Amino acid sequence: MIWMMFWLTGCGALAPQPDPSRYFTLAALARSEEAGTKEATSGADALLGIGPIKFPGYLDRPELVTRSSPNRFEVAENDRWAEPLDENFVRVLSRNLAALMRTDRIALYPWAVDRRPARQVEIEVLRFEANASHEAQLSARWTIIDGPSRKPLFTKVSDVTFAARESSAEGDVAALSEALAELSREIAKGAMAQSAAP
Q1: Which 3 state secondary structure label does DSSP give 195?
Q2: Bridge-partner residues for 41, per DSSP?
Q3: How many domains, the chain?
Q4: Does residue 121 belong to any structural domain of this protein?
Q5: Which pTM does this prediction carry?
Q6: Range of the domain at 154
Q7: Closest CA to 187 of 151, 133, 140
Q8: How far apart are CA 130 and CA 169, in angstroms?
Q9: DSSP state, 83?
Q10: CA 63 to CA 82: how far, in whole Å?
Q11: Which residues contact 40 (CB under 8 A, 6 or more apart)?
Q12: In this structure, what CATH number is given to the domain that contains residue 42?
């Protein structure tokens, strides 16, 4: 009888266990801020080109990363990005900019050398994570470049912080989406100002 109990216990340990992983994605601006469906275009017909975008190496992983102190990170065991974070970031950024600038003339890097957009924004993401207090922190250096001449027109470092509405991984990701939306607004404002300049 004892051997039967051990056998049953062993069978239970070897049985398939449910996957505890949870998958998250950034969200684009609310529909109220959009101006219809926006699709990325490519080449010289684009008003604004996005990229290249450089991400820090510590974010090049599927797991969500939390900054627990200025010099230490915690990597989530079960909370993961549904797609590579840099791809998710640029896709949501392009949707946000298309909505804010009321245009579908958005191109994603890379594009053909002979089909540069009128303006281009290069971005270096310096940090993009939540901290132990569930505040989303985004810091990015971005430059608007004249497409044909490759001349830098405007450079800014944006530092954005948003407190999560709930203390959870889902709340952190929602706050990161809000931080990205605010960066999108700053870039859209700068791009439109440069387009209007003589």
Answers
A1: helix
A2: 107
A3: 1
A4: yes
A5: 0.84
A6: 38-196
A7: 140
A8: 9
A9: S
A10: 9
A11: 94, 98, 104, 106, 107, 108
A12: 3.40.50.10610
